[in-house]
Every structure is written in C-alpha cells, then in structure tokens.
Amino acid sequence: MVARFLGFLIYALIGLVLLVLVAFGAIQTPPGKAVLARLASSLASTPGIAVSIEGISGFIPSDIGVERIILSDEEGPFASISGARLSWSPLALFNRSVDVSALEAAKVEVLRRPLPPAEQPVPPPSSSSGIPLLPVRLERLAIDEIILAAPVLGHAATLGLTASADLSAATRAVSLKFEIDRRDAPGRIAGTAAYAPESGQLDLDLSADEPSGGLIARAAGMDGLPELTASLKGSGTLDQWDGHLALQAGTLAHASGAAGIRAVTEGHRFTAAIDADIARLLPADIAPLFEGRTELAAAATLDTANRLAIESSSVRAAGFGAAMKGSFDLDSRIADLSFQARVPDNARFAALAPGMSWQSGTLEGTVKGNIAAPAVDAHVVAAGLAGAGYGTGTLTLDATTRPDTEGNLALTAEGEAQGLTATEPQVAAALGPTARFQATGLVPAGDTALSRLTGLTIHLTGLTARFTGQADRAAIDGNFNVERLDLATLTPLIERPLSGEAQFDIGIKASDNLSRLSLTINGRSQNVVTGVPAADGFFGRVTTLTGSLERSGETAISINNLRMNAEGLAFAMDGHLDTSAADLRASLNLADLSRLDPRVTGAVEARGAFSGSLDELKATAQVSIPSGTAMGKPIQGLTLDFTGNDITGNPNATFRLNGTVAGQPATGSGAFASAPDDRFEIQNLDIAIGSARATGGVTITDASLATGRLTLAAPNLADISPLVLTELAGSLNADITLDISEGRQRVAVKGNAERVAAAGQSVAMARIDATVIDPIGVPSLDGSVEIRGANVSGQVIENATIRGKGGTDGTDLTVDATVQNTALRAAGRLARQGDGARLRLDRLSATRGSTTIATTAPANIAYAGGTVTIDRLALNAGGGSVTVAGSAGERLDLTADLRAIPLSLDELAAPGLNLSGTLAGNARITGTAAAPTGNYQLTVTRLSTPDVARSGAGPFDITARGDLGSGRATIRSEIRGRYLQALTINGSVPLGAGALDLAIRGGVDLGILNPMLATTGAQVVGNAAINATVTGTASAPNAGGTIRITGGRYIDSLNGINLDRIEAVLTGNQRSVTLTSFSARTTNGGSLAGRGTIGLDPAAGFPGRIEIDMVNAQLVNSELMRLVTEGRIAVEGAFLNNPRVTGRMVVRALDVNIPDRLPGGVQSLNVRHVNAGKRSVPGAARAARREARPADAGIPLDLTISAPNNVFVRGMGIEAELGGDIQLRGTSSAPVAMGGFEMRRGNFDFVGRRLSFTRGRVTFTGTTDPELDFVAETTASDVTARIIVTGPASAPEIDFTSTPTLPQDEVLSRLLFGRSVGQLSSGQALQIAQTVAQFSGGSGVLNDVRRSLGVDSLVVGTDDAGTGGQVGVGRRLNDNIYLGVRQGTSANSSKVTVDVDVTKNIRLQGATSAGGAAEVGIGAQWDY
User: Fold this and answer.
1) Rounded CA separation 1343/215 (Å)
2) pTM recorded for the entire structure
3) What's the whole-number mean pLDDT along residues 502-513?
C-alpha cells in the first residue's frame, strides 16, 4: 500500500514538473508571450491608470524585451515607453539577492501630467512582517531618450539617463551613481554616493548646472528662469565628516551651508548651518516670509545608547522664527523637548492671510513622554489680532495633552481674548470687552484619525454657547446650546446691520456623510432688526422654531411637528418621504401682506402636500389671497392652484389662476410636462390680467433649443401694475416664434411699444421686426430695431436704430443713435469663424458738439475658446490717438497706446466736468485673467477745470507708472502744480479683492487757497507737509498719517483779522482724525491753541470735538473795531450733520469806532436791475440780515459772549462804555441772540455842549460791522433835545428830536444858542450849517490824540459853569473802577474823579479838586 502511494506521488511530481516545463515552453512562443502581455497589463493597471504592454520578446524570464508600454488615464494616453529590456538573474533569488545586469529603454515619452488619482480607501495596516529587504545590484540603468512634451513642465525637453547601484541589505553598504543630461540644450544633473560600514566612510558628490531658461528653473517656477548651479559634497568617516552645500540661482537667490559629524566621548556630535537668500525663488504668497536672509542651525549629539541630545535647532527668517531643544531616545521613543516660535506683525502674511492682521504672536511649550502619546503643554499669545470686522487686544491660549494608561490622549484648550473690538460700534458693544472659551477632546491610542471633540464652551457678553457630547470624523452625537446670542455680533459676517437676541437648543446625531441624521431644535428670537422691512415686519418681535428632522439612509426623510410662529406668520410641516410612501404636508399663513411690502395688504393662505412615494412623487399646492389690495387696487378671491405628478421621474404639472385684480378678471392656466427624448414642454399657456393677455406654448429639446410661439397683447400695461407692484403705463404687443434652423435656435420677433413707462424708465416708441439665428452663440440678425425717446436711469436716448442683414457669410450691422446729445455711428460685419466669431468693425464714431472720437481704420475682433483677439483697434480722439491690440481670455496679451488724448473727451461720457489737459501713456498686460502681469505708464498734462482755473490752483501735471503681478498693481506717481511740492502717491492696489497699500507724501503751499479767498479780501501763507497712508480695502479704505502745517499766516484786511505763526499737526488712522496741536499768535501777542478728534464713522456722521483756547487774543483790529478776547470755544457732535458750536468768550477789550468823516458829495446812482431774479436790491441787505431763516439751516450755536465792560464806542462826538452778556443760540445761518451790550456810561460832545446818553446798545448781526442804538439828551430853553444815533457803525444815521416836537434845524438852534432859528444872526446861522457839515464829514483829530496817549477817553469842551474851557482824560483800571483827570482854563480847575461800579445799576462817584474841595455821590440808573 505504501509502495503504491509512493509511486503515485512520484508520478504526480513528474507530471507537475512536466506541466511546468510545458508552460515554460509555451511562454517562450509568440502566443504565450501575448497571453503574458495581457496578464501583465491587467496586473499593472490601477483604477485610475490603465497600462497596456505590447510585444514581449526575448528569453523569459531572464532576458525580457518589451516593444511598447502605454500608460493612460480617463483622458487617454499620457506616457509611453519604447524598446524596454530587462536582463537579470532569477537564480540569484536563491542566494537572497536581486542581480540586474541591465534595465534599459530606447525612449520614454511623457505627453502631459496624469490626472490626479481618485481617493482610495486606506487599507488596514497589515500584521505581517512583509517581504524582507534583499541586497540589490543594478549594473546598468539606461534610457537613451526621455521626451517631455511642453504641457509637462511648460517647456519641451529631451533628456538621457544612465545609472548604477549596489545596495547591500546585510552590511548596509551603499554605492550609487547617476547622470541625467539634456540632449536638446545644455544642462546636467549627476552624482555619486557611497557608504562603507566597516570603515564608516561616507562620500557624497551631487551637482547640477544649467543655463538660464533651463528645465529645473521652469519646473520650480522661478521668475526670470535664472542660470542655476548647485552642489552637495562631503567626505570622511563618521568620526570626522564634513559636508558643504552651495546653490546659486543667477542674481535671484543663493544659499550656502555646512554640516559636520565628530566623534565625542558620549558618541557622535552633529552640527549643521545654512544661510540662504531664496525669497525670489518662492511663490509670491510665501516669499515675503523669507525676504532677505534666512538662517537654519542645529547641533545635536547621539550617544552610544541611541539617545539624541538636541543642544539647539533654530530657523530665523524675516516673517517668523522658531527654536527647539531637548532630548529624544530613538529606541524607547521617549522625548523631553521644549519649543518656541514667534511671528512679527502681519505685514508679511498679507497674501497667506488676506483680511487678517495682528501685531505679534508667540508660541512656546514642551513635549514630554512617549512620542506616540506625549504630554504637551503649549501657550499661545497673539496681540492686536483682527479680521472679518472683529478684533482683540490680546488673545491667549493654553493647550495640553495628557496620556492615560492605555495610550489615549486627553486634550484640553482654554483661551481668553481681552479688548474685543469691532468695526461697527454696536457690534463692539454686543461683544463686550472679553471672550473666554474652553474645549476638551480625546485622541484614541494609535489612531489620530479618530480624534474627537467632547466639549466646547464659549462665553462673551453677547454670546454664551455650549456643546456637550462627542464629535469626530465618523459621527456627531451631542447637544448644542446657545443660552444667549446678541445678533449684532453677526453683523460683519452677513455684511449688513443686524440686532436682536436669540436662544436655541439643538440635539444632533449624525454620520460622517449625513446619511443618518437626527435633529431636534427648540429656538426663539426677539426684537430682531435686519434693515429689511419684509423680514422685520414678521420677525421683529418674538419668533419661535420647534420640531425635529430625521434622515434614515439616502432616501428616507421624516419631519416631525416642525413649527415656526412669529407675529403675523405661522408655518407648519409634518410627514415623511421615502421610496415606499410619501405623506408630507405644509402650511403657511401670513396675516397681512403689508408686513412684506406696504404696497400690498391682505392675508395669504398657502397649503401644500406631497403624496405617493419618492419614486412616483405627487405634489399639490394652493396659494390664495381672499381679500386685499395691491398698489391701492382691490384684490378679491385670487387663487393659484398647482398639481404635479411624478415629480422625481418624468414630471408634469398644471396650474390655474382665478380671481379679480383692480376690479378686472385675473385668469390663467397652463401645463408643464416632460416629454420623450429629454424634452420639456410648456403647454396651453393662457394668462389674462385685465386687458393684458399672454398665450402660447413652447417645447425645449435636450439640446436646450426651443420651438413654439408666444404672443403678448397689452393695450394698457397699467392693468398689470398691481401684480408687478410697479406703476406701468403704455402699450406693448409682441409675437415671438421659436424654431430650429440647421441645429441652431431661431427667434422671430415682431413687436411694438408706445409710451411705455416703468420704474422711472420710459420709452416713447420702440419697434422690432427681426429674425435672430443662434442668439446665444454667433447671432445672425435679419431685420431692424428702432427706439425713440428712451430714458434709462437718467440717460436719454433720443433715437437709436439697429439694422442687420443676414447672409451665408455673416450679418452686416449698422447702428445709428443719439444718446445724451452724443451721436453714435457704427457699422461692421459679424460672422462665424471656426468655433468662434469675428466682428469686422468698419467704422465707429461718437460726436458731441465739436468733440469727436472715431476709428481711423477697420478693425477685426475675434472670439474663440473664451478668448477675444483685437487686431489693432485705432481711434482718433480729438487730435490724439488710442491704439489697442492683443488678446484677452484665460491668458492675456494686450497692448494699449495713448497719445495726446484731450481730457475734454469726458464730455462724451460725463457732460459738465469741463476737464482740460491731455492724457498719454501705454500699457502691456500679460499673464492670465486670474493673475495678470505687465506694466503701464501714464502722463496727464495741464489738468484743470474752469473752477480750478478761476481759483488759480492749477493746472496740474501727473505722471504714474507701475507693474502688475501677484494680484496687485504697483503705483509710482507724482503730481506737480503751482502750489504742490514733490507730492507723490506710491504703493500698490489689489487687482481684485485685497488690501490697499498706498503712501501719500509731499507738500502743499497754503497759497493754493488764496484765489478762493480773494473775494473775501483774505490771504493765507504757509506750508502743509503730508505723510499719509491708505490701507484697508477699496470698499472700506483706512486712511492714516500726518499733515503738518508750518509757517502759517492768515490775513483778513477787510475785517482786521491777522494771525501769524500758525502751526498745526493733524494725525489720522482708520478710526479718527486728530488735531494733535494747533497754535497761532495775534498781533498784540495773544495766542490761539487748539486740539480735538473727529471719528471716521460715516454712519454716525463723523462724530468728534475740536476745542480752541484764546488767551488775550486780538481777533479783530480794523478802523471800525478792535476786539481782544479770552475763553474757549468748541465744535462738537456729528460734523457731517450740523455739529454744534459751544463755549464761552470773555471780551477783554472791544473798541467800536464810528468814522469821523462820512462820505460826502456822492449821489445815489439810479440803478435799473435787468433779470435780477432774487438778487438783492439797494437797502435790502440790512433787512435780509433780519429775515428769519429755516431753523434747521446752518450750524447749531450755544455760545456765551461776556463783556462786563471795556466795550467802547467812539467817534462823531460819542464817547460811551458798554458791557453785558450775549447768549448766542440758533444756528450759524439764523443766530438767535439773547442779551446784549448795555451802556455803562457815556456822553455826546456836540459843538461845545456835552449831552449825556440815556440809552445805548450795540448789536451784532453776523458781521464785524455792529448796529448802533444810542440816545443822548440835554435841556435848553425849556426844550429837551435828543440826538439819536442808529444804523451800522460803518454808516450811522443821526437824527435830532425834541420835546415838545420841533424841526431839526430848530432843535439845533436851541442846542447851540438857546433861541429859535428866527432869532439867529447870520453868523449863528453859518455855525448851524457848519454843525450839519460835521455830521456829514468832520475831523478825527481828538480820536487820533486819544489813541496816541493810550487812554480810554479824551474830552475837550467847556467847564461845568460854561465860562471856560476844559480837557479831560480817563482810563478804566479794571472791570469796576474808572479813573479820570480834568484840567480847565481857570485857576484851581484841575480835578480827579473816581467811579466805582457797585452793581450793574448802582455806582459810587467821587472827586477832588486842586482847591481842596471833595465830592461824593451815589448814582442809580435803570433802563425802561
């Protein structure tokens, strides 16, 4: 039995050997090799890459040749290998080694880069030990020709490769040699590497060099494609080894480094250092981090126990720095490390973190324990962090990990943000000053992919939120609770104002792909304000949301008791949807549509339901308005019914409309259905609203082409105004026929419109009779379009006619139009060209008045593959020229040249600017539409406007140049002008979204203001030095910097204002402009000083406060008035919306001088006003000043002007002192003064007689020329005579009255001579005439003498007895004491007088004379 079994086994073995030999022999045959090729192709292919092996030859398996190997992806072949050969020794495997004599290929061709492979599931880790590493000997690796097509690296190249290698797994010996050289251009990469374990010898010699434009530079994307040389060399034993690195990329970059290994007592010490300048080799978003010098350094020791002691390791670059030190056991993987990193401000991170900013950031911490589950402590501090409209002064974060006994890591993170800010003040108030947050999590042992969040708490003034549960990549199971959310905190995120509060509690269970989902929600909001009236009308008070939602698998959804209730709104939904059944119902009730839009009233009731199943879903819905109004027109019983079938398969539906609108029937019906061949049909459409009716039907094919017909007849468009909620007028009729011509859409339109008006737009007449083929491709037009009397957004189109004549070769087009009084003319031919279109523009012109811009020659504009190509578009522009040529699409290649373009051409686009000057320049734009590059240069010569010319400020010359790149445009510009001093604007602006970075520097001569001040008689001198920046975004720019005014002086000779030594500093930032300092001196040595701030908050009207302090300031010093004052005034409030002027001024001295000589001999001219309109007429000025003006015009005033005394009025015999307070209210254009200057004492010298003033008041009416109201009287010959002085100080009026009433000449006679006119002698009559002459122009000698003596009063007249002459002078010592001295012509007539004001109405008076006499008295005075 045993013998039989052994015999069977021997025969089986022999059979197996024979079978192997037969199979081996079959493989050597051509059919066998073909089968092997197919099998190898299948085994080598992957889901994303298909491998095709053809033409196996040679002796298998030791010497195999392959004719061709093709690699393909979804887009087809991308690489091929020709003439491959493998010669090796299979028997060497029995010696546990791989021995390859030759691995060769005649040609490897790479056409393009392969598509990225689809993401494949990661296989679970294998528990097997895998294939053991075997020694490998590769005697020869050679590829004669490697062809890289241009799409691979952006440049075609041909390479060759030779190499050999000997890798010993047992002894760890290594020997490697390779060389790659360019065959079509210079360039080479080569190297050798060898390591001998027995001696510890390590040799490295790697090098690369290529000229500019080489393959490595292209592959790395180096700007300018520089010449490149690089080397890495090292030699020595591991006890004393040195290596060196060198890299040079033309003038763009360089790097050098050194490394060393030395034997030390503990083991081996390793050191390395690299010094590099490589910023210009890096992508534009990363390059700023490495600008200038970058240094890397490290030092570590590896001891005999395989423990690595890291003495230091650091990297220092312009944008960051980092360092680490500590120890690491390579065997036990136990670490004890400390690390730190820092970043400066965000300036170098602008591209990596757009919209973010910070002042500084630091990270420091430790790592201890097994590196697979370490204990980590990290501390992060960020200062001045801001972004997306939010900011914080300081952000701190402490994070830790702690392993448990099973190797799991517990994570905790706690942080606090101090000094929270927001761009919107209300958002900042809602956020509060501080935010705190805490998070916990867990990392399971051995699988960081299963890390999960176990808790999160966030607390701010405006938000308290918590998450409890678990959340990881696979599932979420927890509860998210928001105790309070101030909705204002979300304003920057939604980019619109928002306020209100919300609370909600959400329970969530979900899988990673949300195929399993369970949500329960219970939420509430109140006092919501969005700024959208439709939303605020319903959700402005209290809104609640409750319910739950579940998803079970891909096709099963349940909604349970979902309810939303708000004021005037109720929404409900219940039911489920799945493949077996569908029963979902919803309802919506709106109590009053006026909450959505005030133009509509009435309630809306809506009901909807899904039934059937997801495979055959049915839907019904009804929306109704039982009773309401629209645009004030009644709506009754308006109902829209919808019925749909097979919604998820071949949907079809019908609708029906019924009701009345504005008392007229509103009806409609129609059907929608899917049809065979992926067609969609709109059937039996018939909608009528009053007199307007639309009918027809359309079928849309799978190629999105339509056939059918639509008609519209609306003799009175006003009938549909209530439905579109816009006032319409006019008539409109249209007939549209749709069909298909040679696979292209054809649309035939006939229509007309008359007197159509809608939404502020209007058309007097429009007609169209045209057929268009392929309207969304290359349209062919046959017909015409006419428009007359159109007004579109204020742009008036007087007339426009477009005509087209289509043919087999294209469409001839003409355009004749008059727009805003500009005549536009164009003609050309539009035709198909390949897969695109070509427009031959024969002529184009625009003419307005004498200004014309027109083409000088035909131009061709082509469009294909998303690219527009312009073949030299040349325009003659008012004697200048514009030339544009190139292409624009995914890639750009455009040039523009402008020469002597008159700026007066602006009249074509913006009439009324009246610019003058010329523009010249050129530009070249290349790159891609997403990342354009290029340069430009512009010159504006003698820029001016009529207003600028009249002011004398201009003209200006402007030059600007810059480059485009990295998504930005640089600007280097200078503005030159008569009053400008090296004013430049430099920096860059984003070509899309991004931050501005502009610097404005230079000087402005303040004389630029003088031409504008010329009409006021004022003049200013000085200089303003500007040093400003503009950052932020184009939509929200932030300006900052300084304006410094020096050497300033303001002179207003007309009003007697003279300020010099004016110095001021204004500083600005993104939030405010601050008057840091202001100072000026007045002519008497007094001073002005100011300070203040204006907030840059347009929504608040630019709030702020500016204060001016006055110290002994002589503000006015003219022939009419001298004013010296002290005090403080302020301008505060919203500077954009009538700020308020407040403060208190104390008048130290106010002299009002009445001219001693009035103009004489000038006759009033009889002026006849022609077309005077509302201009003033003689005598109206004073009345106009007193006219009441609107209370809201001008700047509100709240000023107190206090003048206890020292207000003097002098001239024409008047000598008076006044005092008092004025409360100035109202506005600057309509001031309201309460109080005034009342007379303290005064007299009137009249031809030797002194009259005492009984009334005196000075009133200011908005100018420095005050109104006078004085009455002086005396008694002579039983007649009380009065002299009344009224009118402005510059032209007073003097009247003479008496009691009893007498003629003015009689009053003068009684005053002068104590007798009537009839009793006067001829000499006395002449004296009266001379008196009259005095008041029409007299001498000012006494006043000049008073001023030269420096006294407050000077009196020359008769003594008290009337028997002799007398001279008196006086001066006020302070606010209450007046000292006077008199000297008469008689003996002992000198006298000293003292007046002491006890109160406003009571005065003590005293006098002593040379004769020893003394006088004391009490005076009392009340005005009534």
Assistant:
1) 97
2) 0.54
3) 88
